[in-house]
Amino acid sequence: MSHFSDGPLLAAYGWDESLEDEFSVHSAAGLTPARVVAVHRGLCEAVTADGPARASTPHADRAADPMAAPCTGDWAALHPAGPDGRPMLAALLPRRTAIVRAGSSRDSRGQVLAANVDTVAVTVSAAARPAPARLERLLALAFESGARPVVVLTKADEVGPADVALAEAEAAEAAPGVDVVSCSALAGDGVDVVRAVLSGTVVLLGPSGAGKSTLGNALLGDAVLATGAVRAGDGKGRHTTVRRELLPLPGGGVLIDTPGLRGVGLQDAGEGLRRTFADVEELAARCRFGDCAHDTEPGCAVLAAVDDGSLSRRRLDGYRKLLREGAWAAARSDARLRAEREGHRKALTKWQRQMYKERGRDR
């Protein structure tokens, strides 16, 4: 049976013929395709061709690698009935894209925020004036995922037109080549413009208090997502969104709202940094020396651009900072892999010694 032709509900969540082909081996095994809508401890909410389902995830919580655990946006294969009688998650399809930030633990493993995303709406408040360094960090995260980033400036009604124009200009400098749009989700102004630049599976990404849930409700056409006020002193908000949840959009596509990000660590974001700082990378290609550090080297095209004002010193400093962070994260990941290989080697040696010892006793 073709799930693609018989599942209009799944198609509304992004199911297509390519996924149908990928799923064929699971279909032959009697498994059912589903998209993960939300994840809880030991359970995940999903949507199937027959409607919503709550499936157990017996192996996911015990996974050695948190990257292998299911997350919102994943496409999954469900067994119709697990040991507890409810559907059971049997496998995840390979992720086309994934937003991964550095985990908070010391083992250098990443955390997947959302999977199979097409558009990342980097959401910041025009009223709070977007911090360029934070915006560049979020853009690197978005670019590294493989999705297309868009910068959305919210709360345009809280400041004057001149302030909105200034915020747009500053965001455009930090995000060259990326669409920058502004709106007032509460008033409805500019929401159509935002909607026009979003497509497919859309994730709202940004700090607390940026108005992601309010924007999400405007895009959804209903007050589905919880919202809260921000503090008057610093413009920061509480985490009114406490989990990632996937919801269908009225005009097609789906939306994932995410909790506010107070800190974003980059995880193996080399390509994301190259695309975020494409202007700096283009200048660097013209430097006299291939290993130019853009510090004091003669013939440095990057420093020349800073001197003539075509590249800001702040942007160069931001580029250097994120490059250093990326190099540190890569070294940390390499150290973890070396430790894992050494642990495996020691375990194998111990097993071999025990086996030889037992064989000696048998003789």
TrEMBL record:
Binding-site residues, Zn(2+): 287, 292, 294, 300
Highest taxon above the source species: Bacteria
GO function terms (MF aspect): hydrolase activity
Keyword hit for Transcription: no
Keyword line: Cytoplasm, GTP-binding, Hydrolase, Metal-binding, Nucleotide-binding, Ribosome biogenesis, RNA-binding, rRNA-binding, Zinc
Organism: Actinomadura algeriensis
NCBIfam families: ribosome small subunit-dependent GTPase A
Places the protein is found: Cytoplasm
PANTHER family: SMALL RIBOSOMAL SUBUNIT BIOGENESIS GTPASE RSGA
Assembly notes: Monomer. Associates with 30S ribosomal subunit, binds 16S rRNA.
EC number of this enzyme: 3.6.1.-
Domain CP-type G, residue spans: 107-264
Family: Belongs to the TRAFAC class YlqF/YawG GTPase family. RsgA subfamily.
Pfam families, per database record: RsgA_GTPase
Positions annotated to bind GTP: 154-157, 206-214
Record's function text: One of several proteins that assist in the late maturation steps of the functional core of the 30S ribosomal subunit. Helps release RbfA from mature subunits. May play a role in the assembly of ribosomal proteins into the subunit. Circularly permuted GTPase that catalyzes slow GTP hydrolysis, GTPase activity is stimulated by the 30S ribosomal subunit.
Protein name in UniProt: Small ribosomal subunit biogenesis GTPase RsgA
EC category name: hydrolase
Keyword Translocase attributed: no
Family annotation (SUPFAM superfamilies): P-loop containing nucleoside triphosphate hydrolases
Location of the EngC GTPase domain: 115-262
Cofactor detail note: Binds 1 zinc ion per subunit.
